[in-house]
Design brief:
Blueprint lengths: L1 E5 L9 E4 L8 H11 L7 E5 L5 H8 L4 E6 L2 H14 L6 E5 L2 H10 L4 E6 L8 H11 E11 L8 E9 L2 E8 L5
Parallel strand pairs: 3-4, 3-6, 4-5, 6-7
Antiparallel strand pairs: 1-2, 7-9, 8-9
Helix pairs in contact: 4-5
């Protein structure tokens, strides 16, 4: 393990989190900007954190009042770290669910369960080439008024979502999306 990450706000502020060795954690400045933008929208929200790594974004959401977070990561190390971080904070499985799967299998599982989320965050590896598959599945999981945020270097257009905001932090960008109405 490397990188100690800290929760930047809310009831768990300053609690350090562990991070798996081979991940690129979301920078504190990016998390702060993200949650400052979301503001009270995150309160009582059901959250999905895809490519979760340490789970820092999901734990930040819980710290700021989210009701529940589902984490998806394919790495055994990441899943272990997320569970360890949840225990350290004192969060039970009533508010934290961890799914060990690649994004496609994990999202399909949630679609099959007819899950719906208020806020979805995805931080795929840079250069991830399957964004259309990701967008298609997230569209099915995001509620009508929900927000999807993608952290990437290059932000694509998509037929599934309308980009409502984009913020740049050096090479990192956050794109905020809302669903396009209707069935696709």
């Amino acid at each position: 393990m490397k990188n100690r990450i800290e929760i930047t706000g809310g009831r768990f502020k300053r609690i350090p989190l562990k991070a798996p060795v081979k991940i690129r954690p979301t920078q504190s400045i990016v998390k702060r900007s993200l949650f400052d933008t979301l503001g009270s929208f995150i309160e009582d929200a059901k959250v999905l954190d895809i490519f979760a790594g340490s789970g820092a974004v999901g734990f930040e959401a819980l710290s700021r009042g989210a009701e529940k977070v589902v984490f998806i990561d394919k790495s055994r190390d990441a899943v272990s770290v997320i569970k360890e971080n949840a225990r350290k904070i004192g969060l039970g499985m009533d508010v934290v669910e961890v799914i060990k799967a690649d994004f496609k299998r994990g999202l399909n599982l949630l679609i099959d369960r007819k899950e719906v989320f208020d806020f979805v965050f995805a931080d795929p590896p840079y250069g991830f080439s399957r964004l259309d598959e990701l967008f298609k599945r997230v569209y099915k999981l995001l509620n009508e008024y929900g927000i999807f945020v993608l952290e990437e270097r290059e932000i694509p257009q998509t037929k599934y979502f309308e980009k409502i905001k984009e913020v740049r932090f050096g090479e990192t960008r956050l794109a905020y999306y809302r669903r396009i109405s209707g069935e696709l």
